[in-house]
Amino acid sequence: MMKQLGCALALGLSPVLAQAAVIDLLGMVSLDLSGNSKATLTQAEVVRDNYRFVETTVQVKLNGAETVLLDGRNGPFYADYGVTVRNIGGYAVSNIQIGSGAIDIYLNHYFGGDARGEVSHRQGSQTLLLDHGSRVHEWGDIYESIVWGVFDPYSFAARISPLTPLQQVVNLQYSAFVDEADSSSYGWASFRPATLTFSVYDPRSVVPVPEPAAYALMGLGLLSLWRRGRGQRVADAA
């Protein structure tokens, strides 16, 4: 039975006083959102890897501005953003796309602050991705530091199959903290979460679609039968 979904699902949560929400998308995936997240769903019948099936695509991204910025002049602040996806109920994840992300932090005169992130993907017991960002440090003097990191895009495509699927766990986590600025010190921190897109399907409902070569062989067989039948009719008429 096809699971019918609404066209969109949206959550707006405070990026400063972060909350969390666990959503079961009609028994297909468990979607754990925190921070200012928005999830959009679409559904379509597709043909891939010689199978026809209904695919549900989910996109999760920051709701509103692309970057969460914490300014010490208005501090202290703490913000986090997290997305965790797990396929459940016998459903399979067929496609995962993670965009680029970034973290930035500037601290002056031992100002208190931090920014960090992690992007990971596990398939069954195997870790396919564990990325903390490629860090770059710059120093102005002994009292000043600038740090930023970049998360590269990532993609994963599982071959469509009617077999029992492996569990896919995708996790994106970002956080930042800044203290309150004063006359002697100042700082800011920010993070730009990656956009996550993934697709889910039911392996129990996939329908095999013959390859073009199979269609060609079938056509030759039908043509051969037609010629044989026509030859027999001509012989009978004679």
UniProtKB/TrEMBL annotation:
Which superkingdom is the protein from? Answer: Bacteria
Keyword annotations for this protein, in alphabetical order, are: Signal
Q: Which residues form the Ice-binding protein C-terminal domain?
A: 208-228
InterPro entries noted in UniProt: Ice-binding_C (IPR013424)
Q: Tell me which positions the record assigns to the signal sequence.
A: 1-20
> Keyword Signal: yes or no?
yes
The record's listing under NCBIfam families reads: PEP_CTERM (TIGR02595)
Q: What is this protein called?
A: PEP-CTERM sorting domain-containing protein
Origin species: Chitiniphilus eburneus
At the highest ranks, the source species' classification is: Bacteria, Pseudomonadati, Pseudomonadota, Betaproteobacteria, Neisseriales
